[in-house]
Fold:
Amino acid sequence: MVKLSVIVPFYNVQTFAPDTLRSLAANARADFEFLLVDDCSRDETPRLLARAERELPGARVLRHEQNGGLATARNTGLDAARGEYLAFLDGDDWLAPGYFAELLSVIEELGCDFVRTDHVQCTARTRTVHRVPHGRRGVVLDPRAAILPADRSTSVDYAYAWAGIYHRRLLDDGVLRFTDGLRTAEDRPWIWRLHREAASMAVVGLLGVFYRRGVASSLTQIGDVRQLDFIHAFDQVIEETARDRDADRLLPKAVRTYCAIISHHLGSMERFEPPVARKLRAMSSAAMKRMPQDVLTEALDSMDASRASRLRRLRRRPSATTEVAV
Structure:
């Protein structure tokens, strides 16, 4: 029986994949499987994964004939997973030796649906600990209660699928799947659904994931049209939260977060290609008009003057006469 399935998408990461694969080897166990999803890489990544399939205990390579993006690659892994528990890693990050065994022990001891963990962010030679924005550690909690308050950073803002471990019942209930085709912000609808629909969670201070920032090929570093998928991701958050039994309480948090992300992108327009920057403004303006307007007004009133002013100008922008599409 497979105790843990680890899903690891790879796309053109030949420089970093060897570190990732070595760290998986240092976490291997007879009842662990590693689902290595090659999302149609065009560099040497497929050769590295083929070797890992031969040499890494529990490794299976799943190949895409077309590039589908991170969300779709994770779903491919979920479809193939046989484990009682599931975890994620990205193909350019790495793990401390024995980390998954420790994490598995924690969730089995606590008996909850999922456990969230802190992580180490790595930018060049700098290492910084990033913590789950939730104070209580090592106790079972209600995930829904961890969404609020609206005006503070909470667990749904710590949207890293790889920072945790998840019981299979969440997969069987459809909670763990990602929205196919999203190429950025794919973790946002996912983390909100997780917190709305799971029954129990815990947060622990176990450090074992090393998250590599500043990778040139990462979508967070690229200013092309794929960045605009955050609009689709947050539209989904708003739509699903509006149908929730606690919509009145949860929507202010969802709308405020959406606005904060829009403001963040507007504040770094120089990294976008000019046509993408224009599309960003138009799509963001249209998105604000789709939000519940009373909730939006309250969200803007609660923000600092600089962000609120920028967003109010965008809100007043005339609607485009033609549909804006990505």
Q: What stands out?
A: The chain is about 40% helix and 15% strand.
